[in-house]
Amino acid sequence: MMRQPVFPRLIRSSCQKKSPFTNKHNRASSICRCFSSTAENNGSQESGKKNLPESASVVVVGGGIIGSSVAYHLAKIGMEDVILLERDKLTSGTTWHAAGLINTFGSLSSTSTYMRKYTKELYSTILPEETGYDAGYMPIGFIELACDRDRLHYYRRVAAFNRLCGVDVREISADQVKEKFPLCETKDVLAGFYVPDDGRANPTDATMALVKGAKLHGAKIFEGVSVSGVTTSYVSEFNEKLSTVLPRVTGVTLSNGHQIEAKVVVNCAGMWARQFGEKCGVNIPNQAAEHYYLITDKMDEVDPSWPVVEDSSRCVYIRPEGGGLMFGLFEWCGEPWNVNKIPGDFSFGEIEPDWDRMGPYLEDAMMRVPASINVGAKKFFCGPESFTPDNCPVVGEAPELQNYYVAAGLNSIGILTGGGIGQILAEWIQNGSAPSGVDVTGININRFHKYQSNPAYRAERVGEALGNTYRVHYPDHTPKTCRGAKKSVLHDRLMQKNAYFRDVSGWESPSWFAPAGTQPAVEQESFGRENWFPYWEEEHRACREGVALFDMSFMSKFAVQGDDAGSFLNFLSTANVDDEVGRITYTQWLNVDGYMEADLTVTKLSHNKFMVVATDTMHNHVLTHMKRRLASDAHVFISDVTGAYAQINLQGPRSRDLLQALTSADMQDFPFRNAAEIDIGYARVICMRITYVGELGYELFIPAEQAQHVYDLIVERGEEEFGLRHAGLRALGSLRMEKAYRDYGHDMDNTDTVLECGLGFTCDYDKPGGFMGIGAVLAEKTGAKIMGGLTRRMVQVLVQDPEPFMHHGDILCRGGTPACEIRAASFGHTLGGAVGLAMIERQEDPVTKSWINDGDWTVNIAGNAFPCTVSLAPIYDPNSERIRA
Ligand SMILES: Cc1cc2nc3c(=O)[nH]c(=O)nc-3n(C[C@H](O)[C@H](O)[C@H](O)COP(=O)(O)OP(=O)(O)OC[C@H]3O[C@@H](n4cnc5c(N)ncnc54)[C@H](O)[C@@H]3O)c2cc1C
């Protein structure tokens, strides 16, 4: 999601000029240790501790591709006194041995695709022009092979999305693959996805070019300087605006005891990042795993200008290297490396290859190029690379420590995305908030939880994370490892009801329920109807027509209390949340520039006690948003009460009758948006009349120790008399999508404004003191008035044909021309087709109702166009009559 006015670089087309394919590149292969001469040219005159400054504005720790890129971009945007400290030599960690693949094809994330495109442009054009130093980019092309139906379907979706992002990806035939890479076996190839100017970079040259650029812009680079710790303080010395509730960075300590004062520290310590972060309480759950490639002896037939070929069905990428071929592997299950501690002296290191484990993968991979089978192996290389629990990088300001930033956990695409990561983080550091032109919700460090750094968790998850690299990314896939880390107190009862559980931020949560006597299992993952489709439909209909029970205990819940709690939350919230006691308020939280930070409810339980409820994925984001804005003298106390309350949602037109049968409270006299304690059995329960599915419904917050008791009463009475049905998250997803309810982190993010998301109704412009971001919202309103409307608006999309499924990344077209991607989608069992949300943007003119109605809209799903309805208002119950029934 890129927005021109705010972050213009992001929409610049990538790669206007390309580095010529020179002999030098053949010699300086990515696996050569060619650092020494470049380090002399670029780094060593600043080496030596005697030249170290006493203070700096920013200290970057780590001189791999990422640290170098961060230092370069910080210096380039004008930050002064930036220094980079590298423990040993530049590139000596992971960077020196990377294969250097640069493929802009392959991701359904706009952020990742942006980073790839920008990085390619940086290596191929920007750095050589700016520094005169060749970053070693070779535009030899890249081909992704589709050798089975699911991959073909998936890559067609990805290709459409990547084209929307400006990547020139072409679907080519097996014969065309053969023309470009004649040794490739193509009998089983269904298609290739070819990007002509993708290719490979030399990681060492790219790092040295970044370092040269950093120095040209004024940064200083020091090798042989190991940072042993970070100094912190609660006292504001540099920036009065920073909160004093959280500590802040004051500098670094070196292994020789020397200290350097600093306003900002950036942890770019690669696979050491977790243990380095731990020294000051920063949670970074990345973990190194073994990662392999094999280089064959010389093969006369190989032409070094052949493209990179990737065959994920055989776990391999193949490219020319040193006169022969390189076979790089991503096996289905990786092997962790040094879970307890990464050795501090591991430099330019290699790991002894495990031939027994990797042999079968290698054999299968080499079948893609049969001529390679009888060629000798020059090198079977194994090096460590760090992976994260969700295969996305760790970027941004640490929630635990102000002015401590992190860029680590690159999941084997650190060279490919390194430029983009550096650019985004530099902007983040300069502004003190994430750039509004890039969706950072999927890469933000604050999405992780402390338990994910446990050795047992890392050891198990890292193997799956590496294995995910080449798996088909089915939309409903859920991780298989580290299951059972968190369980609702209702878990065993839900299991007895035949729940199929998925991992929801670590919580075991029902996705759907199988009928009694049927095994709750996914028989075959797919992009369409799976075996559980009928169960899902029944749960959906039960909620629309009767009453359904959802266990939502994973929701993030915070008690915010104290004399200043109301005014504090009111300032953060677009809506007035400090009104009557017993009022639930749906609201947004914005940053000062008016961009979305959170989407949640705030309930006023008493004059000085509030409950904030947010989605599971935004747990630490919401908590940190509050802490960073809390003055130390404010009478406000924030407690995370997520585990203290189980949450049961009873939703559907019969929910009131069921609840009335269980409580002495008068549920007829319990209006929408009302919250009150009610009795159920022996328990006192906070009951909120609110919905996320578009029906009459209630959310019950039950002290965890009484939740089983309350659940049993609800189920016994509900099943006997009211046809109560258990429902899972798939039903929640389809119900909310029909009503076009938003979900921050999925269909809305930090690049959007409250008005663009159609949530302007939450803004109370007249409340005393206003709210954070009000100036920007008012300015946007004025601008829209002049323009005749907003140029960017969220719409709901309903596919008219009941057959196809739509997913994130499919393309919404107007008159056959791609307009934007579908941000999130589900299947509307009531509306009768796939339904989703999208953000339409026009360059000059407003997105109005009449412009939408005049359009001929289709959705491109894997290359096929399906007519669809596009609407600004929810298609299901647009006047919300069912909710207020
Ligand atoms: C076999 C293999 C093939 C790969 N192929 C590709 C590819 O084709 N394309 C791609 O994009 N990626 C590839 N990668 C991944 C890529 O190499 C990494 O993602 C990338 O190098 C990570 O860069 P980094 O800067 O985060 O880490 P590093 O390069 O490890 O840099 C971290 C630096 O921090 C320093 N450091 C640590 N602690 C301290 C301290 N306390 N004080 C000072 N300095 C410290 C270290 O010495 C190190 O130099 C591959 C990886 C492997 C193993």
Automatic annotation (TrEMBL):
Positions of the FAD dependent oxidoreductase domain: 58-428
Domain of life: Eukaryota
Residue ranges constituting the GCVT N-terminal domain according to the UniProt record: 490-767
Location of the FAD dependent oxidoreductase central domain: 437-488
Sequence ranges assigned to domain Aminomethyltransferase C-terminal in this UniProt record: 792-877
Membrane-spanning residues: none
GO cellular component, as recorded: mitochondrion
Family statement drawn from the similarity comment of this UniProt entry: Belongs to the GcvT family.
Designated name of the protein: FAD dependent oxidoreductase domain-containing protein
Species for this entry: Odontella aurita
Organism placement in taxonomy: Eukaryota, Sar, Stramenopiles, Ochrophyta, Bacillariophyta
